[in-house]
Amino acid sequence: MSKSKIFFNQISKLIEQGLYNYKDLSNEFISILKSKRDELIYKLKLTTSEETEILVKRVENIEKKLEKIGARIIKESKVPKGKGFFITPGLIDSTNLKERFDEEIFGPILQVHFVGSFSEAIDEANNTKFGLAASLISDSRPLFDEFHSSINSGLVNFNATTTGASGALPF
Question: Which of 19, 50, 84, 151 has its CA 20 to 30 A from that of 26?
Answer without folding.
Answer: 151
